[in-house]
Each structure stands twice: as structure tokens, then as C-alpha cells.
Amino acid sequence: MTNFAMQKGASGWADQYNKFVAAHTDTNWQSTGITYLNGWKQDPLDPIQYRTITIGDLVMIEIGGWVSGPAMSATSNITDICTLPDAVVKYFTDSYNTKVTIGQATKRAISGNASVSDGKLHFVIYGNYALTAGDGFWVGLLALAAPKQ
User: What CA–CA distance (Å, rounded) separates 110 from 93?
Assistant: First the structure.
């Protein structure tokens, strides 16, 4: 992994900072390759999108957007919302150490968890909450990944 360490009070920190900034890439928000499943529907104003930001060997994966779909309750099992493209899925395989730092779904009346596995974005409702058919919620996921050494 690239070392961008900067020491407090050390001279030459600007060079290290410039190397750090130059070493990053950002895909910007995209929705290419997402296929909705099980009756879930894309929101026309805020569809599910993904973005990856790479700094050296570290990758930050963001997934977020609004979906509406079938009725659900806390007794429902985990449901698959959509498939994700290989450009995102590869970070959730055995080749990477990936930690989901935030995986949530929120609306005034529901609370749940979002996760990624098997090439799909999943959702489960917590507590005594329910989702009426056709209603929607915002789903967001933030993960950090680094190649396994």
C-alpha cells in the first residue's frame, strides 16, 4: 500500500499532499449495470447509483438512492433489491478485505439494513416497522476495501 504519511511539523508536507491528491480516482455517480429485482422500482429523480473513489490501494464504495416496491415487514426475510455491475461487485469478493461501515435504509416509518453479496444489493427491515406496497425508502451503503495481501 502506498505510504502518504505526513509528520507534524515536518518540511516537505506539500509534496506528500500533492502525491496523495494525484493518486486518487473517482468514478462519479453512475447507474449503468443496475437491474432492479423482485418488484423493486427505480425512482426517476434519485435512482440507486454507485461510486468508487480510489486512493492508492484503498477503495471507498458508495451506493445510494431511493427505491419503491412490494410490501415488507420486519418478519420478511432479506430481499434482493437489485443486481450491481462487476465494477462494484468485485470489491465484495474474496480478493478484497471489505468492511461495510454504513449500510442503512431509512424513511420516516422504517429502519433497516442494506448489504451486498452475490452481486446484489439486499435489504432487511428491523423492529416492528413495515413498508406498504408502492411506498419507498432511501438506501445507502458505504464500504472500504483493500486488496488482500
Answer: 30
Domains recognised in the chain with CATH numbers: 24-147 (2.60.40.2460)
- pTM value is 0.80
Mean pLDDT, consecutive 10-residue segments, the chain of 149 residues? 63 73 86 95 93 88 91 80 94 82 62 86 83 84 87
**Residue 27, pLDDT score:** 94
Characterise 65 by phi-psi region: left (phi > 0), alpha (psi -120 to 50), beta (else): left
The answer to whether the beta carbons of residues 63 and 50 sit under 8 Å apart is yes
Q: Find out whether 60 and 91 touch, Cβ atoms under 8 Å.
A: no
Q: Is-contact 133 70, C-beta < 8 A?
A: yes
Q: Are 52 and 64 in contact (CB under 8 A)?
A: no
The three grid cell numbers given for residue 46, joined into one nine-digit string: 434519485
